[in-house]
Amino acid sequence: MRRTIWLVGVMGIWVLALGACATSVSGPASAPSSGSLDPATLRDQLRSAAASLKPTAGYVPTPAASGLDPALGAYVAIARSDLAARLSIAPDRIGVATARVVTWPNAALGCPKPGMAYADQVIDGALIILRVDERSYEYHSGGDTAPFLCETVG
Where does the secretion signal sit in this chain (predicted)? Predict the structure, then answer.
């Protein structure tokens, strides 16, 4: 549901942007007929449209039930080492339930902290879910941020 709301918001920006383009192209007869759009005007219209949208604070994408991306091996090793140190156990006791590339919708990287505000920007990252016995531990990363234990997620 939250993802649908987010997608509707993104689509709204595109609709507003396309509407702005149509207005510029089919504007009044006194407008210059150069056939090109003014990038500065379009940029201002997009910023205005984006400012009217509500931020996606607290949105966390639902991870897939499983999936191991072999390209994330180094990130998995970092997460396992960190969790092993936290729990004082051997890293080989830690199983990997999920390790996949994700796109986070804001700078919270899927791990928002109460009372914090985050920049709404799309950030490519990773989601790693480790398991010890019956308990799961989520590690998130994105941009230049190495995997960290997300302690605010269920």
Answer: 1-31
Q: Which of 104, 103, 99, 97 is nearest to 70 (CA)?
A: 99
Residue 76 covered by a domain: yes
The 10s digit of each residue's pLDDT in 99-126 is 999 999 999 999 999 899 999 999 999 9
Domain range spanning residue 27? Answer: 2-51
At 107 the three-state DSSP class reads: coil
- In this structure, the answer to whether residues 96 and 134 fall within a common structural domain is yes
Q: Which residues pair with 104 in a beta bridge?
A: 123
Of residues 109 and 11, which shows the higher confidence score?
Answer: 109
Residue 144 predicted with pLDDT over 60:
yes
Q: Contacts by 106-110 with C-beta closer than 8 Å and gap 24+?
A: 106/55, 106/56, 106/57, 106/59, 108/57, 108/58, 109/140, 109/141, 109/142, 109/143, 109/145, 109/150, 110/60, 110/61, 110/140, 110/142, 110/150, 110/153
Average pLDDT over every residue of 48-69 = 56
Residue 60 covered by a domain: no
Residue 13 maps to a domain: yes
Do 142 and 74 have their domain in common?
A: yes
Q: Answer whether residue 62 is part of any domain.
A: no
